Amino acid sequence: MSDPPTVPLDFHRQPPEAMRRRAGELRATLTRRRSVRHFAPDPIPLDAVRDCIHAAAQAPSGANKQPWTFALVTDPETKRAIRRAAEAEEQTFYSGRAPQSWLDDLAPLGTDAHKPFLETAPALIVVFAHRTAEDGARHYYVAESVGIACGMLLSALHQCGLATLTHTPSPMKFLGEILDRPAHERPWLLIPVGYPAEGCRVPAITRKAPGEVLVEI
Fold first, then answer.
1. From the DSSP assignment, how many helices (H) and strands (E) are in the chain?
2. How far is the C-alpha of 167 from the C-alpha of 127, rounded, in Å?
3. The pairing of beta strand 185-194 with beta strand 163-164
4. Helices 142-159 and 46-56 meet at what angle, rounded to 10?
5. Which class is 36-199 in CATH?
6. What is the percent of the chain where pLDDT is above 90?
7. Calpha distance 142→66 (Å, rounded)
8. Rg (CA), the chain
């Protein structure tokens, strides 16, 4: 069996001082990232959003199958339809589907079935995961691959100056129907994107201490 084709790696080794500086800046920047539920309706530079999506699409994936589609939604009527469908699912969730323990955990975040941000935010990104290829060919590690891509997308959007929210109404089948996506694509994540509203406030939460998340062996 012959070796697969390769290309030279485009990698630039950085001096340790530069690495430490950039890592510190990145840590400080991402520490300020928060989930936002109050968006300004102001327009945003969609070319920047597209670049962030293309950056996220560089994520590694199982066997390089790239099992994702990113739907960028700005049409007001489509956003309104998504809000109505999402709120219907969320009403069912909050009024009986969710166990009390889950509702108790959500209480400090102040969330409920009303999702006005789905209309107010100037853009929505709906991430679809491909369970298989369109022809039925198998995909591998789909959850891991799409999860990595979503993390890269959130980081990119934050670093270019935009606020986001990870919204997961369940079930999300309505997103594929509203956006007319093929059956092999499964809605994975709904991300409102925009600027925070004037005077935006977020829940007073804390993160785990470094010693709780990092183990060095």
1. 8, 4
2. 11
3. antiparallel
4. 140
5. alpha beta
6. 94
7. 9
8. 19
Average pLDDT of the segment spanning 185-208 = 96
Map residue 191 onto helix, strand or coil. strand
More confident residue, 200 or 98: 200
How remote is the C-alpha of 66 from its chain's centroid? 16
DSSP reduced 3-state for 68? strand
- The one-character DSSP state at 96 is I
Residue type, 66: Q
Q: Is the pLDDT of residue 213 over 90?
A: yes
Q: What is the pLDDT of residue 14?
A: 96
Residue pLDDT, tens place only, 6-55: 999 999 999 999 999 999 999 999 999 999 999 999 999 999 999 999 99
CB atoms within 10 A of CB 156: 19
As a whole number of angstroms, the distance between CA 208 and CA 13 comes to 32
Residue-range domain boundaries for the chain: 36-199
Closest CA to 82 of 177, 188, 199, 193: 177
Contact (Cβ atoms closer than 8 angstroms) between residue 128 and residue 73: no
The burial of 165, by beta-carbon neighbours within 10 Å (0-12 exposed, 13-18 middle, 19 or more buried), is given as: buried
The model scores a pTM over 0.70: yes
Residue 211 makes CB contacts below 8 A (sequence gap 6+) with: none
Q: What is the band of 3 on the pLDDT scale with cuts at 50, 70, 90?
A: confident
Q: Which amino acid is at 180?
A: D
